[in-house]
């Protein structure tokens, strides 16, 4: 069984909307579901460096400081044949929807906080958001 690390970014804008990626059907991880942007940690890269890189690659956005929120094993998902350690970071941005570039997936959307849980969320995103969404708007 393959083992790897991924870094995800819980990015909140000044309207307190959360950036979510609508994943396409060409991925083995959570196809057609909504997820936090992120991806693999490359060799020689820290999880925080990966979070910054993936955010830029997938959205065209940069953020300043990222705060580590959670690290742990990816929640179990039937049919997913990998062992994954997930690192979740929180960041803030002044970006609006028109600033977002879709670098990967079907869409990348700032979703109002009260609508986030109306989406078909990927298993890791669904597990992590309830723990941290309430504090995502804090300034650090």
TrEMBL record:
Ranges where the Nudix hydrolase domain occurs: 2-134
Keywords: Hydrolase
Keyword Hydrolase among UniProt keywords: yes
Molecular function GO terms recorded: hydrolase activity
Signal peptide start and end residues: none
Cofactor(s) named in the record: Mg(2+)
PANTHER family, sorted: 8-OXO-DGTP DIPHOSPHATASE-RELATED (PTHR43046:SF2), GDP-MANNOSE MANNOSYL HYDROLASE (PTHR43046)
UniProt name for this protein: ADP-ribose pyrophosphatase YjhB (NUDIX family)
Protein source organism: Micromonospora violae
């Amino acid at each position: 069984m393959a083992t790897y690390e991924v870094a995800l970014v819980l990015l909140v804008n000044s309207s307190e909307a959360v950036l979510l990626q609508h994943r396409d059907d060409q991925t083995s991880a959570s196809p057609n579901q909504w997820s936090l942007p992120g991806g693999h940690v490359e060799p020689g890269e820290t999880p925080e460096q990966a979070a910054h890189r993936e955010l830029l690659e997938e959205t065209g956005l940069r953020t300043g400081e990222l705060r580590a929120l959670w690290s742990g094993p990816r929640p179990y998902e039937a049919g997913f044949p990998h062992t994954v350690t997930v690192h979740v970071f929180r960041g803030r941005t002044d970006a609006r929807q028109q600033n977002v570039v879709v670098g990967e997936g079907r869409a990348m959307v700032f979703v109002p906080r009260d609508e986030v849980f109306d989406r078909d969320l990927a298993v890791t995103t669904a597990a992590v958001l309830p723990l941290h969404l309430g504090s995502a708007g804090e300034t650090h």
